[in-house]
Every structure is written in structure tokens, then in C-alpha cells.
Amino acid sequence: MVTSLPPILVLSTDNVNPWKNLALEEFLMGLCQSDSQANDQRLFSAILFLWQNQHTVVIGRNQNAWAECACQRLEDEGGYLARRSTGGGAVYHDLGNLNFSIILPRSRFDLGQSFQVILDAVQSLGIEAVRSGRNDILVQERKFSGNAFRYYKGVALHHGTLMVDTDIDPLLRYLTVSDSKLKSRAIKSVRSRVINLIEAKADLTVRDLSQAVTSSFISHYGAGAPLESLDAGAFHGHPDLAELETRYSSWDWRYGKSLDFDASLETGRHDWGQAQILVKVEKGLIAQALIYSDALDSDFIEGLARKLQGLRFNALDMAQALSGSGKTADTVGEISQKIIADDIASAIRDQSF
After folding, report:
1. pLDDT in tens, 201-228
2. Please, are residues 73 and 174 in contact by the beta-carbon 8 Å criterion?
3. Phi and psi at residue 93, to the nearest 5°
4. Considering Cα of 322, then 328, then 332, then 336, what sign does the dihedral take?
5. Quick one: what percent of the chain has pLDDT higher than 90?
6. SS3 content of the chain, % helix, strand, coil (to 5)
7. Is the pLDDT of residue 319 over 80?
8. How would you class 160 by CB atoms within 10 Å of its CB: exposed for 0-12, middle for 13-18, buried for 19 or more?
9. pTM of the entire predicted model
10. Domains of the chain by range and CATH?
11. How many CB atoms lie under 10 A from the CB of residue 159?
């Protein structure tokens, strides 16, 4: 008797609300087979979710919303602020942009292969694209796709943007760019470093690209597995999804906690990104710590902040607590957790407190 692999799932949605779409993305991670959990809900060996957001700024898991976005202006003009579950930087979404989410069991996830899904899709449309840096895909040496990653409960997520015909003006209007980023990349303007795919293929549509990504995904992950194609409405009303929608739309999740801090320091720019460390000190001990960062490994950054709590407010003690943290095997992206921890520890060690 021949048995096939568990099915793969391709899911699309007409919903353009970012809070609902990000909630659905996390819900779908719970439907993918896991290396660490087994239950009746985890039916799929691979999942592709294609979605769009309307007039939205999406910030990374550990970013400071007010530092990355003109939040009041965005909301006054009918836009959405959303915070995703992954690390990385802030991006602008409109209906000229296509978002993709590739979800796999962690043991099956290979970053090079999931990037290749997108490269193959774009190249099948006659557009030459290349992967660049820690998380970008370029055409004509300009970025059209930013990507981020997460490991959670034995499941891997790779999601990203694909700019087909995005309006650049709102991107410039709502997003802020730090001086260190500008200097480190020698960038004179946002316009000079991003590109819409219609500049490379004038008749391209979001629908065309969606079909190409779907075909490439099936080619990479569908061998020997039945295909299920669903609309997001199939999960409407599920209590777990409703709970996630409440969280992603909440003020606390989107804006995050603020900290009346006593000390702040910045790491400067590294290959993995940058970080700002804030601490609240009571009776010489760190009562609270918060790390804002665009590092891709969002869960690891949160863990580093927890390591600082309860320590003496002393640079050497703080650096020692972080130095050597992390595991190469747990790395999200291609820069190890140990390097990130050591860079942050070094920045702290250089302080005089």
C-alpha cells in the first residue's frame, strides 16, 4: 500500500486588515506539522499563505513604534499600525504589495530553499532577481522584497514583502530611517534603493506574481503530497484565531510597553542590525529592561532583556550575563545568536556605569 505525504496547504484571502492577517498567519503555524508537538490540528507538511494589507505600517517584533513610524499621522490618515511576530525593520504595505508566508516543520526548513521559492517565482516571470544581505531580494541592485523569520514550537516561518506597484510616497511619509542606517549603507534617498517589479516588467500584476509564487512553492515542497487550496474564510470563527485577532489588534501589542528608563545605550550598526537597551534601576538593581532592535531573531532579543533583570546596574555584570548567550542551532537567519549577544555585551562593557 502506497501512502502519500501529509498534504500541503495553499491559502489566500481577500481580507486586507493587517491585524487579522497577522493573526491568521500565526494560527496557520499551529496547523503545520511540528518537530516538538503533535496534535490533531497539525495536518499539513508545508503551508503557503498569500495576503495583502491596505495602507499599513508593519514594525518588527522588538521595534519602538514611535521611533520607526509617524504613528499619529498614519492613523489620522486612515492607516493601520501593525506589529508582526518576527524581527527586522519597519515596512509599508498597500495593495500594490504582495505578502507571502512559507510555513514548514523546522527540521524541513532551509533558508536557502525558501528564498529560492521566491527567486524562482520572479525569474519565471522573466525578471532577474538576486538575494542580498541578511534578508533582502533585489532587482537591478534595488530592493523589492524584505524578509523575516521565526522558529516557534517546532515550526519555522519565513515571510516577506513583494513590491509589485507600491506607492512610494506613503513609505516616505510614514517611515523614519535612522542616521546610522543611512550612513552605514551610504544611501542618499529611499527612492534610490527600492524598486517596484513593474519597473522591470511593465504588465506585471499582483495576481500574476501570486500564481508564480504558488507554482514555485508547489514545485519545491509538493512532491508526493496532495494539495489543498483554501480561502481564509474556512477558519472564520475559530476561537484560537479570534483570540489571536484580539491580541494583534490591541494597543498593548501594537505599541508595546513604554519604560521610564534611567539609562539607555545603543550598540551601533552591525551585520545583524542594531539595538537600544533601556533599563530601570531601583536600589542599584535592574528592575526592568527593554531592548528595541531590528535584529531578525525576535525571541532571542526578548530573552536577552530578561537576562538583565535583577542584576546589579554594573556594566561588567550586565555584559557577563549576556556574553556567550544563545546557540548556533537556534539561530534565526544566518548570523548566530552568539555573535548578536557578544556584540550587545561589548557595547555594554564599554560603558562607565
Report:
1. 999 999 999 999 999 999 999 999 999 9
2. yes
3. -120, 140
4. positive
5. 78
6. 35, 25, 40
7. yes
8. buried
9. 0.89
10. 8-255 (3.30.930.10), 263-349 (3.30.390.50)
11. 23
